[in-house]
Amino acid sequence: MTKVASNLQIDSVRLWDTIHETAKFGATPKGGVRRLTLGPEDKQVRDWFRKACEATGLEVHVDALGTMFGLRKGRDMSKAPVGLGSHLDTQPTGGKFDGVLGTLAALEVVRTLNEAGIETEAPICIVNWTNEEGSRFAPATMASAAYAGDYTTDYILSRKDAAGVSVGEALDGIGYRGTEPVAQRKLGAFVELHIEQGPLLEAENKTIGVVDRGQGITWYDGTITGFESHAGTTPMPLRRDALTALSEFVLAVERTAKAHGPNAVSTVGEAVIAAPSRNVIPGEVAFTVDVRSPDTETLAAIDKDLQAAAVEIAARRKVAMTLTAIWQKPPTIFNATLVDAVEHAAEAIGYSHRRITSGAGHDACNLANVVPAAMIFVPCKDGISHNELEDATQADCTAGANVLMHTVLALAGVAS
Ligand code: HGY
Ligand code: MN
Ligand code: MN
After folding, report:
1. Residue 362 CA: which ligand 1 atom is closest?
2. CATH class for domain 12-215+331-412?
3. pLDDT tens-digit readout, 348-382
4. Could you tell me the distance, in angstroms and rounded to a whole number, from the CA of residue 202 to the centre of ligand 2?
5. Global pTM?
6. At what angle do helices 40-55 and 100-116 cross, to 10 degrees?
7. 216-329: which CATH number, 3.40.1160.10, 3.90.1170.50, 3.40.50.410, 3.30.70.360?
8. Each residue's pLDDT tens digit, 259-308
9. R_g (Cα) of the chain, nearest Å
10. Alpha helices of 226-295 — where are they, by DSSP H?
């Protein structure tokens, strides 16, 4: 096998232009991107991605959950491909880089290898995972979770959005329900480049985050049922107000995370009154809770505290409350050999770097359960993400893509 000089670099301008070209699919007036999974804007970017892959000589395959694979042949096709990629769906008030950087950097790596005339020993496969964000359909990272065997394909196809549309219907609606069974396409390894979505790399002036762990995540769906009644005639002591009960619970969610800190965070990101009206006491609310910690024990302790708080508030306020865990992702430990390969690539090219735990969930966190996986972070401005202000520099995106390329070359081997 030949060695590739560590000064082989991706085309920085082309990567930057590609990121900004795809940002037009779902562009928002504030400079962000709203590209909810399996919606019209997601179809636009998927069609764009398919064409770009084919123009780069990749064989495009789509599985039963719409995940897109772009295969680049290697000298020894008996070897499992090295996977690299991320996701192209965004949050409702998302940015240009979350998921997009990792997916388009993977495409840029292929473009660079083609131009350099480099053939790898093992094939490589770039991936656009369906619905990483979990905003329209829960749970998040559902396609890679199904690939890792956490869910059946049918269960994921049955998941519905707030309008009652299922994943299966939405896939058919944009023409991306593939015929390939989920997880039929075996990967030998998976590496994901992503913005950090937090402040550490920028604060420490480090270019590369060598991700060795990922936080555990628990998602809950909750309901509170009180009693709708007249806002003017119902005395305060007689009310069974679902929204005031939820308000207490939201503060209990915050208090519990702080009590289990500093390695715990929790968020109530959605709250819906069933039949809102300014002069009706809310009788029914639905809400969601997102809890994260790098420690399994902390996640379990928070679960116990939240369930106890729900029981206490419901009894005292005479409402009925449900709090159901719909997604429990244990903390991730990435493959030590691959983590070392990322660190070695950053070192060889000369980028400053540090080991880091991912606060966000990612597709690589699911892949890590079935194949050796690792992640590469680059800084984002002020650590902001899941916000239209999300921003990153061309230099850092380029650095991340270079580390991705050299890590993948080390894993796949270079035939010529
Ligand atoms: O929620 C997450 O951690 C991911 O950014 N979707
Ligand atoms: Mn992401
Ligand atoms: Mn995200």
Report:
1. 4
2. alpha beta
3. 999 999 999 999 999 999 999 999 999 999 999 99
4. 18
5. 0.95
6. 10
7. 3.30.70.360
8. 999 999 999 999 999 999 999 999 999 999 999 999 999 999 999 999 99
9. 23
10. 242-259
